Amino acid sequence: MSNKKRLFIRSWGCQMNVYDSGRMADLLAPLGYAPAEAPDGADMVILNTCHIREKATEKLFSELGRLRKLKEEKPGMMLAVAGCVAQAEGAEITARAPFVDIVMGPQSYHKLPEMVARISRSGGVAIETEFPVEEKFDHLPAEAAPQGVSGFLTIQEGCDKFCSFCVVPYTRGAEYSRPAAAILAEARRMAAQGTREITLLGQNVNAWHGEGAEGLAGLLRLLAGIPGVERLRYTTSHPRDMDEALIAAHRDIPQVMPFLHLPVQSGSDRVLAAMNRGHTAEEYERLVDRLRAARPDLALSTDIIAGHPGEREEDHQATLRLIERIGFAQAFSFKYSSRPGTPAAAAAAHVDEATKDRRLAEVQELLRTQQADFNAGKAGTICDVLVTGPGRHAGQIAGRTPWLQPVHAFGSSTLVGRIVPVRIVAGHPNSLSGEIVEQEKDAA
Ligand code: 5AD
Ligand code: SF4
After folding, report:
1. Using CB atoms within 10 A as the burial measure, which of 89, 254, 374, 414 is most buried?
2. Which regions of the chain carry the CATH code 2.40.50.140?
3. Is 166 touching ligand 2 by the criterion CB < 6 Å?
4. What's the pLDDT at 222?
5. What ligand 1 atom has the least distance to the C-alpha of 166?
6. Which CATH number fits domain 5-130: 3.40.50.2000, 3.40.50.12160, 3.40.50.720, 1.10.8.420?
7. What is the pLDDT of residue 304?
């Protein structure tokens, strides 16, 4: 088929970028672009970038260096840089890599078909780094490729919190909530395409305040009413926006899973204040108490930053103690990385690299132990597992527990898309292995 064109998208960073990459593919499908597995020979390559931590820009330029060679071999190839590095470093990209055809920020990818058409017609470069989020969501296509048993749905974008260390308010812009009607329509379509678990995405997802529902709790209630939507999750939440209604949603809505990603960043009040997080360690712990009272089997995940400017040894110790007291099932931890233009970057007392490395290692060691303990604790229990696909080995299936743990078990691939009881045989550091409870094995 000569009019079929091949599209390769490389995505870095958060789940929202994964979602955005999917929507870019949906937007380009009507123009004849079909997904390719590798950039070699592709007619269009999109690099969907992340700016949250260091080295993003350098990684991008080294990737662009490789792609330049592919482009020399295939001059018609179109090359686009999307995402937060494009937003923040648009001018540098066009200066250092003039062979790039399109530079577009996260709020502009709906214009992709128009940019591609313009460049195919008359050449040149397209640069789009404006901020009108509403417009983007209005222009997303109704047609979308299925996401599989578990899928993402962006409901909120941007952030007004301005944590000292974070570039998101600058790259993704102000908070914007999509209206409930648009979200419900997308969720219905996903359910009709076989998606059983929907993870709602937003940089500040629990600050959602769109039209048509009373906060995120109200929205979850509406989503839970859609036939086929069996599991709901949301990420990433800010502790300050965890209101009573949302806590109650974990108790009252069976589809809302007992797992919550709730970044705390630090266990020291001094550092939390310097970070502009708007809560103390004690307030975070009381919030966790209320969540666990509402939903006793709730498991928590978090983000920790080691070595924020001004962090002293006693602050680091306070972080370790908070982690010990809470007990996380999963976590992401990062060495503080100075982002130009953020308040923390301009702070006086930066922590030296060796100290940051050591503190991060200590944080990670503790979190690793907690995750391993949490997984080991599931051995011998029966978990409801959503079967998401075939497993790594023949005759195996892969799935997820309510607590997001990957599970492997022997079973038929006819079970994909179903929730089956699995007896957990062993808990490993990053996954579980189990056996499907007998009467289900032969079903379907
Ligand atoms: N340095 C290190 N970690 C960061 N994060 C955000 N900005 C930085 C930074 N400058 C982490 C936070 C956030 C997660 C998505 O990335 O922990 O919750
Ligand atoms: Fe960044 Fe803080 Fe906003 Fe999260 S809440 S996106 S860490 S500024």
Report:
1. 89
2. 382-443
3. yes
4. 98
5. 7
6. 3.40.50.12160
7. 98
**pLDDT tens digits for 117-149?**
888 887 888 888 877 767 788 877 778 888 999
Considering the segment(s) 382-443 as one domain, its CATH architecture is Beta Barrel (2.40)
pLDDT for position 1: 43
CA of 165 to the centre of ligand 1 (A): 7
Token pair of 237 as six digits: 């939440």
Q: Decide whether any atom of ligand 2 lies within 6 Å of the 105 Cβ.
A: no
What single DSSP character describes residue 130? -
The segments of the chain whose pLDDT lies below 70 read 1-2, 133, 439-444
Distance CA 380, CA 32 (A): 51
CATH of segment(s) 136-376: 3.80.30.20
Give the per-residue pLDDT at 129: 82
Distance CA 220, CA 233 (A): 9
Q: CA 256: distance to chain centroid? A: 18
Local structure of residue 218 (DSSP, 8 states)? H
User: How far is it, in rounded angstroms, from Cα 317 to Cα 301?
Assistant: 19
Which residues belong to CATH 3.40.50.12160 in the chain?
A: 5-130
pLDDT at 144: 84
